[in-house]
Amino acid sequence: MSTIAEIKKTMEGKMDQSIAAFKNNLTKIRTGRASPGLLDTVQVDYYGSMMPISQVANVSILDARTLSVQPWEKGMGAKIEKAIRESDLGLNPASMGDLIRVPMPPMSEERRKEMTKIVRHEGEAAKVAVRNLRRDANDHVKKLVKDKAASEDDQKRAEADIQKVTDRHIAEIDRMVESKEQEILAV
């Protein structure tokens, strides 16, 4: 049997995880700017097994619109270049000796609008996850009251606290969505 404090602590931890996952998803959404996290989803064939580019090369930012990929082994350049070109990111890498330059193509207005829709959708999914955690926590508290392990006053206080934590997490998600949209729409 858990206490109200444990229920709230568990819920808040899970809500923090939901926000961390949302933040991670946001890094994969392309803006007009170069970001090393953009290539995290691209896999390259490394001696018969698929690996993320970050595990076979150094990915860094050359300037606001260009990534540089420096393979750790001589023979990997062509494979990495091919993997980036064939990914669904719409990038066109160019080799310069051992270094691969990945220019970020400017995004059309239509593409920017699509990206903001994706960001909003991801934000909505994160909010749903947070609200589900709120519901689960409230259900646990109600069960404690039903089992006579807590009073109805405790339940009211707990539900108010749970709502405050939920509101704080939802506001955080809204802020992240807003900031990512501005990043995408900035030309």
Structure write-up:
- This protein is of the alpha+beta class.
- It has 2 domains: 103 residues, Ribosome-recycling factor (Topoisomerase I, Chain A, domain 4, Orthogonal Bundle), CATH 1.10.132; 68 residues, Gyrase A, domain 2 (2-Layer Sandwich).
- It is 57% helix and 16% strand.
- The protein is built from 4 helices and 6 strands.
- Strands 3-4-6-5 form a 4-stranded antiparallel beta sheet. A two-stranded antiparallel sheet has the order 1-2.
- The longest helix has 38 residues.
- The chain is elongated.
- It starts with a helix and ends with a helix.
Mean pLDDT: 88
CATH topology of the largest domain: Topoisomerase I, Chain A, domain 4
Integer-rounded radius of gyration: 22 Å
Examine the secondary-structure arrangement and name the CATH architecture of the largest domain: Orthogonal Bundle
List the uncertain runs.
Answer: none
Q: State the separation between the terminal residues, measured CA to CA.
A: 54 Å
Estimate the global geometry from the Cα principal axes: elongated
Number of strands: 6
- What is the CATH C level class of the largest domain, in words? Mainly Alpha
Query: Helix coverage percent of residues?
Result: 55-70%
Physical arrangement of strands within the biggest beta sheet: 3-4-6-5
Structurally, how many domains make up the residues?
2
